[in-house]
Amino acid sequence: MGLPAGYEEQIEEYCEKHEAMLLRSLGTGTQGTVFTAKNPRHPSVYAVKFHLRQIAYDREVGVYVRLQDLDVSEVCGHNVPELLGYDDELLVIEMSTVKPPFCLDFGGAYLDQPPDYTPEVWRDWREEKSDDFEENWPAVEQILDEFRWMGIHIADVNPGNIRF
């Protein structure tokens, strides 16, 4: 399996430490790379996300722990992955897989306070996201409001991580 540059050692160490076998790539983004995997600890196939940056890992783990503490498995009818485990040493998160409609990828989220953007940046952000989601934008705004109610401020919103 061709591994994304920079992740080879981390992935090999994770697979050895957790007796895991990676099955297929689900994608690589700015915050990490995701695979489906299986191992003896999990009865079914799960998703595993590898991070290279501590800050993105910390944010995403924080969001998943918050969702777990609140017993959240869906937001406005959109499935949310369940936290199955994480490895602070290897910057790896294990989570359940979900099918659309879903909300996922919280590496760009902030807990308890939104990012410190200027009003102009927020205006441009809303315009761009409205264009990205087209007729689904009002539903996305409702989803984002629900996450904000939980203290989760999602800045990285795109049709790949909020799917209808």
Automatic annotation (TrEMBL):
Organism expressing this protein natively: Neorhodopirellula lusitana
Protein name, entry field: Protein kinase domain-containing protein
InterPro entries xref list: Kinase-like_dom_sf (IPR011009)
Superkingdom as given in the UniProt entry: Bacteria
